[in-house]
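Batch job 17 of 40 flagged for manual review because the log was empty.
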Amino acid sequence: MDLTRYLPPVLALVVVLALCVLLAWWGWRRRAARQGDLPELPQPVAGGRALSWGSEPEAATGVYVATTLAGRPLERVTARGLGSRSRASVSDADDGGRPVLHVERQGAPSFLIPWADVRSVHAAPGMVGKWVGGDGLLVVRWQLGPTELDTGVRLDERADQDRFLALAAQRLPSAPSDRTDPPPSAPSPSDPPPSDPELPSTDSQPRKELP
């Protein structure tokens, strides 16, 4: 049986696959270069020695999905190591007197999100890298320098997501209003901001997963 006739199409397929990988890598690098002016991620003071947690800390494990530009769930941020999906734990901590969310990642840079920089904490149906529908992702909208970001985490337990939403309602001040009596339907800091794309509405995937 002459197998040499299969050699040209096999080689062509290998070349196409290699080209696709190269283009994906090139696009990733270009995106990171465009986002090169993003400030360094907040890190613990004194090398983490000032980090502390309460006697009953708010903490949860899950998967760090992605960070995107705020309100644009398809615009992934890859600079500063934010583009790598990974297992992670999220906890409410104190960093030398500064209340923070501590995002500890496995195999990728960990970082802090100071509560002073958080704009909202809400549930969302998905973002680039993970579409689950419903309210399957916990999304923290926060300010890093001049850029507003959305950081999404798929927590292992739904109860943990509810606890962090409740924590955000306590931590974040209500939006200021010029009215003496604000309307009863005024959004709270944990309400989801408007989202651009229309996403699936069902969440059929198990919560606990590998990155």
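Reviewer: the log was empty due to a logging misconfiguration, but the result itself is present. Confidence is low (pLDDT under 50) at residues 175-185, 197-202. Unflagging and moving on to job 18.
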